[in-house]
Records
---
Amino acid sequence: MLITAFLLLQCSQTNAQSNSPVVVVVADASAVTSLSLQQVQDIFLGYSQFFPDGSPVIAVDQPENSESYIEFYASALDMTPAQVRSHWARMTFTGRARPLRSVTNDAALIELLQQDVRIIGYLARRAVNQHIKVVFEP
């Protein structure tokens, strides 16, 4: 009985992870195939300007009031929009980094991804198509 309960819990956790409403994506032409949680955090918080292979990265945000933004920062970085604003205020004030460029929606991000392999962003899982590659699922 205890083993059955444990297996059910494991399956539900696995399904919850694989059904995350937001995913981190790069261009299909990018050499990057996957990223760890720490790498995603470092890139989206401005601590790293490079992919793990050493190539430059340009992280792109969604609008602060969008569902994707709220879900991404909550699930991948455990931050609220207010905490994200505070973080970027500190990073900007100290000169360590500039706030991320923002796109208006998922379609605008996909368009950017097709133009530049350095771009990384996050979007709704349902927006993923053959021109982009999922590299992290919160």
---
Amino acid sequence: MHSLNSALDRLRSHLPVYIEDVQQKLSKIETLRAACNYITAMSEILATDIPVDPQQFHKQLSIGLSQNTRNMIAKALNLKHLVSNLSTLYRKTYLLTLTQTLYEIKLQFTLSVLITLFTCFLLGRLFTQALSLVKHSEKMDEQNLE
């Protein structure tokens, strides 16, 4: 779980919402939604190579997010003027890094789910074996009593 949290922290640092002096960080689901929105917005920018309208960019980044997160995005965009100043090469590199981080989170999440399922499977097997040992022990006790 620690590796998932550290991966999410790395992902947060790549989002335009990330402001170091802000005490509150995005929740896991808000981080993933913001990252998906950001990848979509950056992909559209790369596809069209047209200068970005900050209001439209803010609208794209805010889809499905809470009002608090929208406010953080607006603040971050006002502080950084992020997209309009990026070169095309830098945008592609940034998008690739963000996509790779999302993939790593997905992989870590999948691995933790698989580990949990495997643990549940092993516990089920242990429980079944313990139950059969108890039944076997009860039969042995009945035979000894006779």
---
Amino acid sequence: MEVSYDVKHNKVEALVKEMIKGNKGNQMKMQAKEWKKKAIKATDVRGSCYDNFHSFIKDTLQLKMGSSKYECKARKGLRLEHV
């Protein structure tokens, strides 16, 4: 939903009512709730973001400790793979 630069009180009022009570507003609220659930799942322990970050830290520490050569490869997030 957008409001043009030539804003009229009636148009703003109609958009606010649509967001609060209308179908479009309800759809946006449901979508926001879905995104919230997905974000919580991804960042929770054993979620995809958690696992990717854990692997990144583990591999970075191994590099710092002088492990053998590693190469960066994009595969389900950032991963370092042994060459």
---
Amino acid sequence: MAATEMTSTRLEELLGDETESLLNHVCSTVDKANLHLPGPDFVDRVMVDTDRSTNVLRNLQWMLHSGRLAGTGYYSILPVDQGIEHSGAASFAPNPIYFDPENLVELAVEGGCNAFASTIGVMGAVSRKWAHKFPFIVKLNHNQLLTYPNQFDQTMFATAQRAHELGAAGVGATIYFGSEESNRQIVEVARAFEEAHRLGMFTVLWCYLRNPAFKKDGVDYHVSADLTGQANHIGTTIEADIIKQKLPENNGGYLAMGKDFGKTSQLVYDKLTTDNPIDLCRWQVVNCYLGRAPLINSGGASSGQTDVAEAVRTAVINKRAGGSGLISGRKAFQRPMDEGIGLLHAIQDVYLSDEVTVA
């Protein structure tokens, strides 16, 4: 296990005015004693009792013992599927060397990540050199924006069988919960995950909301704790081994949508969450079967100068909530490689720090 390079002074500098509310918050909603928390023994303590095969457990263990966070139970994953999701130009024009998959793998390895997640094309281009040395996660479906007018749907680009053949340790997929296409996507992804497990690979679900109705009265409830929590719950139900979710920024999505949409409980808002972002993220963890499916939050788009501070803030919230790590792409690869490596290390330093504890 690597040593943290993040000093207390640097951490407080990055968190700024939120230092007190984030580092000293005590969660009084769902007690951490009820959670299945990350740790070096997570596979033996939590996963070994599941229906996952020995090969799935071995691949999960391999990922947990790779990179700078090896032996901690936490994940730092580099995802690069944005060339399809956002276009190659929008993704790689800031740093064109990353049109070459070899450079992306180098960023993941030198950046100390546990694994690299990308498209079947990217993985296939370098699989014989890297797939036996470093955990690959093949993203099976994508939303592409070359259809006119633009549509927002997830299309299967690859199969679990193909991912297995090139040596992947795991597969990933996205479901747009709340969209008109979500029922079809749930069936497609559930079947793909079942096949992946049969072939010995673990599964990661990009567990996103997508419906214009979720933006109401100037508030974007795509990132509400209650709606994203339910998406996590469905994702865990189709046996995603790891849930990837956006960090919650608000709450009350169900209430805003009105009585004709879904079902919730007032206890969620009165007792089980507060306005503190750690408690909102804790609700996401709770919906992942109280942490049986590890929650990794996404790093979000690159904002430039504030990227490191934003990434460290997200990592602190995720770790203190009982989450299991961060999956950050654009903030890392839309800058020179040495700076991207430094950003990934800053994220990992939060999980290596003894000063950042579960609230």
